[in-house]
Amino acid sequence: MGKVYDQVCMFKAKYPGTITWYRLRKHAKVIEDHLNPGEEPLYSFAGQKDDDFMSFINTCVVCITNKRILIGQDHIIVGYSLNSVTPDLFNDLQVYRGILWGKITIDTVKETVYISNLDKKSLPEIETAVTSNMMEQKMKYGIRSKE
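User: That's the sequence. What structure does it adopt?
Assistant: Structure tokens below.
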């Protein structure tokens, strides 16, 4: 197994309330195929790439690496999609906690990515992993947020 898939399995075991369907291995493989030389997966999790809590068919894998955030989704019939959020494009992360599940919103310069149906207990861990890594990467490259 790949490191991304192993991390996703650990996440699912720790937070079983997260709604994800089969094909996690294929979603993780999309990310593993696009890792650059010297790029290490630091934290991976799965959720629904959608803004709607009632949608359960858009499972994806999100991986925070030492260089960027990757969101991979293998399509059922043919092909896949991959989003890459580099530190210079990362603007903000919003966390929403509902009654049953939570949602994160990754705001970038060009788009907004929603990952929903996350176990609400996982939200602090995900927020810490994403924001601490992105702030660390921005400091490395001299990209400072406006304060």
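DSSP finds three helices and seven strands in the chain.
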